[in-house]
Amino acid sequence: MSGTGKSTAxxxxxxxxxxxxxxxxxxWSEWVPAACGSEEEWLWREDRMAELLASQxxxxxxxxxxxxxxxxxxxxxxxxxxxxxxxxxxxxxxANRTTNDxxxxxGERQRILFHxxxxxxxxxxxxxxxxxxxxxxxxxxxxxxxxxxxxxxSVSQRAAMP
Length: 162
What we know:
Blueprint: H1 6-15, E1 19-22, E2 29-33, E3 40-44, H2 46-54, E4 61-64, E5 81-84, H3 87-96, H4 108-118, H5 120-126, E6 129-132, H6 137-160
Parallel strand pairs: 1-4, 5-6
Antiparallel strand pairs: 2-3
């Protein structure tokens, strides 16, 4: 969801040495005609996402994004984490951020609130973890790292079992 701190958390994970990909860019996403109308949708470039998620690396990969076609890739992720925050926190963040103008244009704040009511429940129903991102950034990033560490330990234990 816009304004929950995805980009900020991802930047901090990168600063701490983790592999990160922010899919909210033309390198990873593109505008395509919507299936049911004249609008366009911002969707993951499926070929690039498939290649990224098939790559092997010993380091945990953190991917950020919220696209309507992301569910096609859920089986390739070890965890799906929803960052959530109260509407007033989200609206304050988008009003004050300097790295992204989304939320400042006509109707965009209303669209954010609409998505908070209509899309976030769908994301909550399919996520494996939820983090309240109104907490301090270090707490949010530490929680993300703990999720990644727990998955790595679990995979290592399964691989070591006879």
